[in-house]
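Appendix B, record 7
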Amino acid sequence: MSGLLQVFFFAKIIRRFGPKRVIITGAFSFAVINALFPVTHQLALVRGVSTGVYALLLFQMLLIIIFWCSFGAYLIFCFTPKTTEAINHRFYFHFCDVFCANQEVAWER
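Structure tokens (predicted):
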């Protein structure tokens, strides 16, 4: 179900909200998904398997779809040219600070 919805709506969601907002929403939905497990459990203990339990499970499934969309958005965000250039630039200087401090680097000879 998640895959089908992503096939048809993922591009529209990314165009409308942008990859960064989708990633943030996915991270938030992950927290809510995990918080709903004990709530659903307590509701099922108190009232039995009722429409409230099914409503919470449906809501949880919708949040899982949003959560899985954030993985695709993360890949888009990381592999856009500006982001990739910034990441590589920071990684290069961090690498040089850690491993090349006070040493002559072989490729700079």
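Remarks on this record: Helices lie at 2-17, 19-47, 51-78, 81-99. Residues 92-99, 105-109 have pLDDT under 50 and may be disordered.
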